[in-house]
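Protocol step 4 of 5: obtain the predicted structure for the target chain.
Materials: sequence only (see below). No template structures provided, no constraints applied. The aim of this step is simply to have a reference model before the mutagenesis design in step 5. Sequence pasted as it appears in the construct record:
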Amino acid sequence: MAFVEVLASVSGRRTRVGLDRRRTSLWTAVPAPAPGGPGKPPSVPEDGSMWRRDDGRPPHGLVSVLMTLWKNYLYALERWPIVVKCVSGGVLTMLGDVAAQALESRGKGSWDARRTLALTTTSLLLTTPIYHFVYQFLEARFPAAVGARNLITQVVLDQLIVCPLYFPVFFSGSGMLEGKTLQEIREQILRDSWPLCKLSW
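Step 4 output (structure tokens):
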């Protein structure tokens, strides 16, 4: 169970995406096209992508498809941040739990659908929305763009305050949805929160 909690917590709590990352090792971003209007993605350039190779050639094939999907994901994340983060957190948590249960069952074919639903719902409706506003507050109070000092402050506050509070909240929400008693939830919080917090560090 500890393994799935790690997967779920990492996927749910670390869903933030840096929108200002403009370069990878091979691809360079060119200026984005004008938005296509409310509720619509930006218009796509004639070459089918807002990215070009460093040698000037536009991407083709699978790379072009992936770049287009990534561009539209970033657009949606910027336009509807909390919705996209919640959906992303829920999907990643679901996939993480399915993978964890596959490893736990060792090919026996058993799958606890209620556990997957409980973890996914907790990430989708509870932890991801809460920490969206927590990180939004940290960024507003300590803008990372100002300098390394603010960035370090964000990391320190995240690790020393946000992270230790995350696991009790997560275990409480998922435990209630799984039908656990308050005593069982309390025992899990006391048993697993600190080891998982140290593992997260």
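Step 4 remarks: The first strand starts at residue 27 and ends at 29. The radius of gyration is 20 Å.
Proceed to step 5.
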